[in-house]
Amino acid sequence: MQELRNFVDGQFVDGSAEFDKVGPVDGSVVARVHEAGAMVVDRAVRSAQRALEGPWASLSVNDRAQLLRRLADRIDERAEDLLAAEIGDTGKPEALARRLDVARAAQNFRAFADVVAAAGLDSFLTETADGQRALNYALRRPIGVVAVIVPWNLPLLLLTWKVAPALACGNAVVVKPSEETPSSATVLAEIIAEVGIPDGVFNLVHGFGPGSTGELLTTHPGIDAVTFTGESRTGAAIMRAVAPRVRPVSFELGGKNAAVVFDDADLDRTVAGLARSVFTNTGQVCLCTERVYVQRGIYDEVVAGLVERAEQLRLGDPRDPATTTGPLISHAHREKVLSYLAMAEDQGAKVAVGGGIPAMGAGLEGGSWIQPTLWTGVDNSMPVMREEIFGPVAGLVPFDTEAEAIRLANDTDYGLAAAVWTQDIDRGHRVAASMKVGMSWVNTWYLRDLRSPFGGSALSGIGREGGHHSLDFYTSPTNVCVAL
Ligand code: NAD
C-alpha cells in the first residue's frame, strides 16, 4: 500500500492521523494518506516564511524562471508516475490524463517562466501642477506565503496553475490538494526536491477541509494570501476564515455554464463540441456545459445528435484505450448527482438518455459509475438548471430569438463560462460579448491561452488568473517615487 506523507521544509513527514484514499474505479483503497494536523500545518507555514528569507529571495528572476523550466522538463520525464497517480485517484481515462492533466502541468510552469521573464513594470514621468518633476515606478514584490487549496477534478493541472505563477513571482507556498486526490501532488513534491528548488519554498499538507488541514491553513496567521479553486460554498467559508486578518483571495469557483446553439451553426461540429463540453472528465470540469439552449428549428436534430454521442461513450477501465469516460470521483459525489437525477424526473423532466447507474460488471461494480444523462422538458426554474451538478449531465431547452437566448443563458447565479455555436461571425462576437461570464467561447470550448484572463464573476469567483493577471495577484507592488 502506498503511503503519502506531507512535505515540509524539504522533508516528507508523518501526519497526526491517517486516512484511506479510495479509488473510484472499483472502490479499492489506493493509498494511505497522512493528515496534517495543527503542528504540521504550523511547521509548513513557518518553513515557507523562512524560505522567503533564504537563498530563494536572492535568486534573479531569470534564475527562478530557469528553475521552473527545469521543473517542467522533469514533469515530462516523470509523466508515467504522474499519470499513474492521477488515474489511481480519479479513474479518468489514460488518454485524457496524458493530454490534459500531465501535459498542462508542465506547460503551466513553462508559461509562467515566460510570463515573469518578460514582464515589465509600470513607470510614469510625473509633472505636477506646481512644477515638480518625478519618476514613479512600481516594483513587484512577492506577496509572501501563499496557501494553495485545490479540488479533485483536474488535480495536478489546477495545482500547478497556481503554484507556477506563485513561485515565478518569488513566493513560498503551502499546498493542500483535495483529500480525494493526494497522489500527484506528492509526486510533484518529489520533483520539486529533485530539481533543487530550495527547502521550504514548496510545502505540501494533506487532509480535509472544515475542522481539518484546510481550515487550519486558512486560519493560520502566517498566511499572506489564499488562492483557491473549488465550490462556491467553500469559497465563502474561506473568505470568512481570512476576513479577520484581511488577506487577499483569488477564487475560481463553481459554474452552471450555458451553451447557446443558433440554427445557422455547423451541426456536426456543434454536436461534437457540445458532447465534449458536457461529458469531458465525466462532466467534472468547472467549465463543463450543464445548460444547452438550442434554436427551435434545429432543436430535435441537436437533441438526437447529442443522444447519439452519449450512447457512443465507453465507460470502463481507464487504461483501456477504448475507454472514453471514467467514474465520478466518489460514492459521496455520485449520491449528489443521483439526487439531481431523481429530482429532475420528479419535476417532470424527460430523460433523453441515461438517468441512472450503469451495469459495469467485471470487477468494476464497486466503482462510482454513472450514466451520461440528457434531459429535455426542463426550464430555468428547476434546480437541475440552476445548481451546479458536476456530472455528465445537461438539460436542453429550445429558444426562438437571439435576445431570448442571451436572457436564458444569463439567468443564473454563476458567471464562469459560456459557448456560442453559430456561423454568423457578427452574431458570434455579439452574443459571446453579451455573456456575463469570465470566459466566452465561439465555436469551441475549453481552448485556452495561458496568457489570457481566467476566472468567473458572481458565485463563480473573485479575480482573474493567467498571464499578467496572475502576476497581479501573486505580487504586492511597491511604488517608488524619485524627485527629478
Ligand atoms: P470543494 O470546495 O469541496 O474542495 C476544494 C478544496 O477545498 C479541497 O482541497 C477541500 O479539502 C478544501 N476545503 C473544503 N472545505 C474547506 C474549508 N472550510 N477550508 C479550507 N479548505 C476547505 O470542491 P471539490 O468538490 O473538491 O471540487 C469541485 C468544485 O470545484 C466544483 O464546484 C467546481 O466547479 C469547482 N472548480 C472550479 C474551477 C474554476 O476554475 N472555477 C476549476 C475546477 C473546479
TrEMBL record:
Domain Aldehyde dehydrogenase: 14-479
SUPFAM superfamilies attached to this UniProt entry: ALDH-like
UniProt GO molecular function: aminomuconate-semialdehyde dehydrogenase activity
UniProt key word Oxidoreductase: yes
Superkingdom assignment: Bacteria
Residues of the signal peptide: none
Active site residues according to the UniProt entry: 252
Keyword set, alphabetical order: NAD, Oxidoreductase
Enzyme class: oxidoreductase
Pfam families in the record: Aldedh
UniProt-listed InterPro entries: Ald_DH/histidinol_DH, Ald_DH_C, Ald_DH_CS_CYS, Ald_DH_CS_GLU, Ald_DH_N, Aldehyde_DH_dom, OHmuconic_semiald_DH
Presence of keyword Oxidoreductase: yes
EC number: 1.2.1.32, 1.2.1.85
NCBIfam families: OH_muco_semi_DH (TIGR03216)
Similarity-based family: Belongs to the aldehyde dehydrogenase family.
Protein name according to UniProt: Aminomuconate-semialdehyde/2-hydroxymuconate-6-semialdehyde dehydrogenase
Source organism of this protein record: Nocardioides soli
Species classification: Bacteria, Bacillati, Actinomycetota, Actinomycetes, Propionibacteriales
